[in-house]
């Protein structure tokens, strides 16, 4: 069973007399440790999909399972607890609380967890270290650069050791160079700390840092799960063949 499983997920919204269906019977598997990017035209349902996986919104039909828990079946209060433990969210604009220091912003999600104050402090220290901001712990958001603020936002998303981190345009508000640094950081967190990620982006260069790239269009993925798996197998076969060839030289 994949870490995240979406089966037959449908979501519609009423807009006046019209019904919009951003997601029309969508299936998706995300394995533990995968980094999946999600692209697609504006208004195609990417943020809707993130909100459903995060349990912020509910599908009209279909099921969403994360690490064996059917999120779609949880009551509102259980969902809040589930989110605190299992889900990290990276926003386009970091959403930091201006009157709290970087340390206090990162600490916030841990207040919902059953941890001793020592364990809590260790988690926050580790998260700040992972994003390279240990020396900025006492700074307020206004004393940080845009890239540093986004790093704090990322530390806050990983501090609870969630099962999955979802990111909505994490580099969308940053200049090119800072955006590239954040891309490298996300890639490192995935590869070195094995953090499973689902990231929405409009930028194909950003999408390429992921281990799997999906495109959502008119309610469906352009590539089915089966086609993705076939393509990955083909890529592995090609890589193996190339290595054999190279070893002959
Ligand atoms: N709460 C809501 N009420 C009504 N319509 C909504 C709601 N949320 C999303 N929609 C509509 O659903 C469609 C998909 O929206 P969504 O934000 O998921 O698209 P998106 O692919 O993330 O777009 P973008 O790339 O522009 O951020 C849009 O037509 C949007 O207007």
TrEMBL record:
<dbReference type="InterPro" id="IPR015854">
    <property type="entry name" value="ABC_transpr_LolD-like"/>
</dbReference>
<keyword id="KW-0547">Nucleotide-binding</keyword>
<dbReference type="GO" id="GO:0098796">
    <property type="term" value="C:membrane protein complex"/>
</dbReference>
<dbReference type="InterPro" id="IPR017911">
    <property type="entry name" value="MacB-like_ATP-bd"/>
</dbReference>
<dbReference type="InterPro" id="IPR027417">
    <property type="entry name" value="P-loop_NTPase"/>
</dbReference>
<dbReference type="GO" id="GO:0022857">
    <property type="term" value="F:transmembrane transporter activity"/>
</dbReference>
<dbReference type="GO" id="GO:0005886">
    <property type="term" value="C:plasma membrane"/>
</dbReference>
<dbReference type="GO" id="GO:0016887">
    <property type="term" value="F:ATP hydrolysis activity"/>
</dbReference>
<dbReference type="GO" id="GO:0005524">
    <property type="term" value="F:ATP binding"/>
</dbReference>
<dbReference type="Pfam" id="PF00005">
    <property type="entry name" value="ABC_tran"/>
</dbReference>
<dbReference type="InterPro" id="IPR003593">
    <property type="entry name" value="AAA+_ATPase"/>
</dbReference>
<feature type="domain" description="ABC transporter">
    <location>
        <begin position="4"/>
        <end position="243"/>
    </location>
</feature>
<keyword id="KW-0067">ATP-binding</keyword>
<keyword id="KW-0813">Transport</keyword>
<protein>
    <submittedName>
        <fullName>ABC transporter ATP-binding protein YtrE</fullName>
    </submittedName>
</protein>
<feature type="region of interest" description="Disordered">
    <location>
        <begin position="227"/>
        <end position="249"/>
    </location>
</feature>
<dbReference type="InterPro" id="IPR003439">
    <property type="entry name" value="ABC_transporter-like_ATP-bd"/>
</dbReference>
<comment type="similarity">
    <text>Belongs to the ABC transporter superfamily. Macrolide exporter (TC 3.A.1.122) family.</text>
</comment>
């Amino acid at each position: 069973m994949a870490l995240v499983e979406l089966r037959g997920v449908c979501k519609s919204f009423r807009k006046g007399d019209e019904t919009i269906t951003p997601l029309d019977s969508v299936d998706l598997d995300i394995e533990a440790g995968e980094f999946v990017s999600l692209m697609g035209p504006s208004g195609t349902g990417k943020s809707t999909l993130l909100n459903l996986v995060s349990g912020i919104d509910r599908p009209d039909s279909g099921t969403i399972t994360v690490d064996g828990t059917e999120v779609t079946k949880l009551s509102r209060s259980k969902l809040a607890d589930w989110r605190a433990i299992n889900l990290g969210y990276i926003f386009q604009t970091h959403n930091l609380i201006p009157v709290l220091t970087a340390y206090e912003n990162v600490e916030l999600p841990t207040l919902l967890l059953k941890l001793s104050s020592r364990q809590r402090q260790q988690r926050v220290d580790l998260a700040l270290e992972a994003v390279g901001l240990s020396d900025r712990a006492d700074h307020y958001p206004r004393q940080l650069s845009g890239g540093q603020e986004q790093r704090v936002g990322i530390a806050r998303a990983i501090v609870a050791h969630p099962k999955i981190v979802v990111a909505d345009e994490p580099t969308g508000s940053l200049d090119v160079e800072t955006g590239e640094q954040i891309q490298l950081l996300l890639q490192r967190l995935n590869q070195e700390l094995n953090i499973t990620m689902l990231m929405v982006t409009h930028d194909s260069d950003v999408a390429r840092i992921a281990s799997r790239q999906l495109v959502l269009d008119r309610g469906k993925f352009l590539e089915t799960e089966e086609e993705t798996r076939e393509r990955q197998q083909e890529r592995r076969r090609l890589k193996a063949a190339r290595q054999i060839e190279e070893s002959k030289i």
